[in-house]
């Protein structure tokens, strides 16, 4: 405190220009705070001290060194001292004022004189394509001292090249020199040379028994705990191989010369050495298979290198006990995936708090105890295809990273087991819908795709208000009440197993029957809904999906009949899967502007205007259609190819426009491929050319009732090659 007060007073006096009779010393400085010296003639330096303030009366100082075997300090007067390097090492040179005891320090590093360098190999024989690392060290005192930057050069890169870390790679048969050089602090360049002979691949002849290369057949291998490795080591010359020594890190055990056993997870290294020439093999073990208690000895060391890996543990026990928590307590330092192919049960808290657990597959487990995975903050997915009971409390509580759960056979479950699992995106559960509410406590996922394969009935309030469900699959649902999905505002895909959709006796009898699942009007259907699937539906009734303007895809694998206006004005519909459909009633797809393709191979009946204004239709094949009836079925279809390989009775109005203006108002091009009794397929083309209605017919079969209409046609241009009229049985009328 007294010293600080003295400094403060002295400072104030200087600021205000007041000079006392005797200035007090307030500090001392050195002109250099770091020195690097070499032993020898140039190993001296001069330090200068400045006592503050310069007007201080007491200016006596003293010099000290912490190690006079490294540096020796000699005062030279006028507050200077000579520092002379004695031996390699580090020391601190300090100066201290007699008044006040203020001190300044200079850190001194003394290097041994660098007079020569050496390479670990001075003659190297390499087969083409092989590599060997050369290293440089001091030749003389203190070889452990760091070297200046090393520069590498190949005398002939066509024979061998060398990179910045000293790795020499043989290119082509021949001889050259690899040179390493450094520049000393005194500016002298020192060099060391390795003579390299590159031999043809497979050549092993070398002079004498000089060892010039020891090489594993690879730099790194992946393995599992328990694996026995037999790495191949090539020694040149081969006769020196009898002096080969293998040493390993803690994670590996060497048995004899050629056998190495992997003992633990993580990264370990195996070193091969002959007469000081070495090579290293990196062994990375990321998988383990064995009983749970062996997992304790198989954990990797908590290094950054091990943290970067993702591990796989396979536990072969029939029951996973609570002792696993202790066995895996340190696994928060690395992520791992767990598989238990034989375990039929998981004890309570077996994995509780194991942060490194990333994914779990329990192939045979039917029971899981309370809190078995609670607090597993790194867990992202769990799959148990046979799990039947998860009645324990807090099973996944706090699993904040959990995104996928697959329990397709689960029947018993307790409320709140997914509390805190807000990252969930996909769930497959086998229990009834009635027990679904409450699984998440007060923290619901932001977006969840839910699969419930065993649910057979859905009540009107089972999913009401579940605005966080983006997808819902109920493939076994036989009955679904009206309003079942009310306020599911984020729903994008819906799969239902109903065999029919009929709301005649339900809340609403609105014509648009599908809307009743959500409300009573088209505005009840969420804007997000774009995909529907009905794997068991046999027929689509009149108006069922009419007006679903955002629907893009629908799957109807069992449907045989599509009713009137079933998809009327589904303007976004592009993909319809209905391979078994036989009957398309009136206006079934009218106004589906974006519909591109549909399987009509089984269709036997097409109603009037069935595809009217389906502008994007490109190709339809009606393999089973014999009677082409249905006025204006393709009116307004642009650039459409139609094929009817089995047609026998044709109503011309099947292809015609709904009124005289249709062909003028739309860019219309229609190609029709029909059968010809003897010659095979033929074509009819209908086009719009400068407001002239042009029909080009090769051969046309029309019903006899159309004879008068054909004779009365007054189009500006027409080309008729053959026209036949047929009766109701398809026979040609004379």
Question: What can you see in these coordinates?
Answer:
4% of the residues lie in helices and 37% in strands. The strands form 14 sheets. The protein has a 16-stranded mixed beta sheet that branches. Strands 50-52-54-55-56-57-58 form a 7-stranded mixed beta sheet, with no helix packed on it. The longest helix has 14 residues, at 2-15. The radius of gyration is 44 Å and the shape is elongated. The model is unreliable at 1-21, 504-512, 658-668, 676-699 and 708-721 (pLDDT under 50).
DSSP helix count? 5
In the predicted model, the low-confidence regions spanning at least 5 consecutive residues are 1-21, 504-512, 658-668, 676-699, 708-721
- Report strand %: 35-45%
Q: What would you report as the Rg, rounded to the nearest angstrom?
A: 44 Å
- Average of per-residue pLDDT values: 78
Helix content: under 10%
Main sheet, how many strands, which sense, barrel?
Answer: 16 strands, mixed
Class from secondary-structure proportions: mainly beta
What is the molecular shape?
elongated
Count of β-strands: 58
Straight-line distance between termini: 131 Å
In terms of topology, how is this protein built?
Elements: H1 2-15, E1 27-30, E2 34-38, E3 44-52, E4 61-65, E5 71-77, E6 80-85, E7 89-97, E8 103-111, E9 117-119, E10 123-127, E11 131-133, E12 136-138, E13 151-154, E14 160-162, E15 167-170, E16 174-183, E17 189-199, E18 213-216, E19 220-224, E20 228-229, E21 233-236, E22 245-248, E23 252-255, E24 259-262, E25 266-274, E26 277-290, H2 304-307, E27 311-315, E28 319-320, H3 323-327, E29 336-340, E30 345-346, E31 357-362, E32 367-368, E33 381-383, E34 389-390, E35 404-407, E36 412-413, E37 426-429, E38 448-451, E39 457-458, E40 469-474, E41 479-480, E42 493-496, E43 531-533, E44 539-540, E45 553-555, E46 561-562, E47 575-577, E48 583-584, E49 605-606, E50 619-621, E51 627-628, E52 640-643, E53 649-650, H4 662-665, E54 669-674, E55 682-689, E56 692-703, H5 707-711, E57 717-726, E58 732-733
Parallel strand pairs: 2-8, 10-17, 19-26, 26-27, 27-29, 28-30, 29-31, 30-32, 31-33, 33-35, 34-36, 35-37, 37-38, 38-40, 39-41, 40-42, 42-43, 43-45, 44-46, 45-47, 46-48, 48-49, 50-52, 51-53, 52-54, 56-57
Antiparallel strand pairs: 1-3, 3-6, 4-7, 5-6, 7-8, 9-12, 11-15, 13-16, 14-15, 16-17, 18-21, 20-24, 22-25, 23-24, 25-26, 54-55, 55-56, 57-58
